[in-house]
Amino acid sequence: MIQLIDVSHGYETRHSRHTVIDNINFTIRRGEKIGILGRNGSGKSTLIRILSGAERPNRGTIIRGMRLSWPLAFGGAFQGSLTGLDNLKFICRVYGISHEDKVDYVLEFSELGKFFREPVKTYSSGMRARLAFAISMAVEFDCFLIDEIIAVGDSRFHEKCEHELFEKRRDRAFIMASHDTATIRRHCNRAGVLVAGKLRVFDDIDEAYEYYQASMA
User: Fold this and answer.
1) Number of other residues whose CB lies within 10 A of the CB of residue 62
2) CB within 8 A of 173, min separation 6: which ones?
3) Whose CA is closest to 165, among 128, 140, 129, 192?
4) For 87, phi and psi rounded to 5 degrees?
């Protein structure tokens, strides 16, 4: 189970304090799929970063009773001077697992070829995203964090990513932040709507969609 209790977060601007997440409470259990709807700038990405541990909230408590992924396809934590292979080794050490049985999988899935053994700082953004997604699938998690739908590579690679995550790991939980209601309907069994820093969670996707549409008006 993952539980957020009275979580708030904001940033100082030149003129005032901007609150992005305001006293959020919600719980996700094993195998549950929850979508977070919200317009651009509503705080969806901030919420995902806070859940992953990449950013700490200003206030509140997060109970992580499941192993949470980093945001899928996010390569911001890579060490640029290290190769793709060395980054895989480093991440496996962080999670206390062996890298040896994962090298072939990551190399094949990422389709990096010879660049797998080149420094990540030489990668394009798409190559970094493919590496990050492949490593995310190689390191097994109980709950995956998805910031927008996985727009990695061309349509063929995109379909491969969706199959790997939504079909082969259908028993896992995930939290998907998106403004694409069709994606939320297709993959989630609950949905929350983030408006003005407040998160309202619905058991019925249609109710969530109606509330989201009303908030956009």
Assistant:
1) 15
2) 2, 28, 29, 30, 31, 32, 33, 34, 66, 142, 143, 144
3) 140
4) -65, -40
CB 93 within 8 A of CB 37: no
pLDDT digits (tens, 9 = 90+) for 117-137: 999 999 998 898 889 889 989
Confidence (pLDDT) at 57: 94
Cβ atoms 50, 177 nearer than 8 A: no
Q: How far apart are the C-alpha atoms of 187 and 72, rounded to whole Å? A: 16
Long-range contacts of 95-102 (CB under 8 A, 24+ apart): 95/139, 97/139, 102/135, 102/138, 102/139
Distance CA 92, CA 140 (A): 11
Q: How far apart are the first and last CA of the chain?
A: 34
Global pTM reads 0.84
Is the C-alpha dihedral spanning 91, 122, 149, 63 positive or negative? Answer: positive
Strand locations in 38-95, DSSP E? 59-64, 68-71
Q: How far is residue 50's CA from residue 36's CA, in Å, rounded to a whole number? A: 14
Under DSSP, the state recorded for 67 is P
Token pair 């919600």: residue:
26
